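Quick start: what a row looks like.
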Amino acid sequence: MDIIQQITDELKRIVAKLLLGKKFPEYEDMVIEYNNEESILLISLTRLIIEGKINEAENILFDAVKNSNYKNISGVVIDFYSMLLDKSDDELSSLNFSKEEIYEGIEDIKKLL
């Protein structure tokens, strides 16, 4: 496994622990296979992050959590916030976002799940 994959996996573990708490060991053993809708959602969120539209992406994610029956929405949330945590403070700041907002978002979504 290369270093980038190790870092990505560690970020996902951190977000999963924050999001799932005691259920975290269950996540570690899961292999998530997204259905088409979940894949499209994750691709859309990724595109918005790349475009620097983090707030818009987060709003879409919150709507998806509130208004859908996605089977693997926790996985989408974990992937989304892992992508954000991978960004430096300077990158986030240039996009009018911060690590604090990431952690707040995780806590807010945790209440909805």
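That is the whole record. The two ends are 32 Å apart (CA to CA). The first helix runs from residue 3 to 20.
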